[in-house]
Amino acid sequence: QVQVTESGGGSVPTGASLRLSCSVSGRTFTNYNIGWFRQAPGKEREFVGSITWSTGRTDQPDSVKGRFTIFRDNTRNVVHLQMNTLKAEDTAVYYCAQSLCLGDCSGPFYKTPAAYDTWGQGTQVTVSS
Fold this sequence. Notes:
Blueprint: E1 3-7, E2 10-13, E3 18-25, E4 32-39, E5 46-52, E6 58-59, E7 68-73, E8 78-83, E9 92-100, E10 118-119, E11 123-128
Parallel strand pairs: 2-11
Antiparallel strand pairs: 1-3, 3-8, 4-5, 4-9, 5-6, 7-8, 9-10, 9-11
């Protein structure tokens, strides 16, 4: 059974950087995405990016492009979310999740929580001015 576990959250001032990590363990297939989502109080869960494990291809929404980067460490089965120039509106619980996928793992469906089967417990990121 696959498990994903986030780490690296914390409280930082506006403009700071944080790196979140998602550790993937257990038996898994080769064709899957690791996605990052965030959820602020009273808001829906929001897609902040994904990486296709087999190809390294990443996908990110315009709202975080240029500030957030997703990359993987193949040797340790870890996916990182590097967040720079953090803003107060980035405050949320951040989740990583795994999606087994068909084809090239791309498209609008893989930007939605419904595509993801296994979720971590989340890690809190608080950005204060």
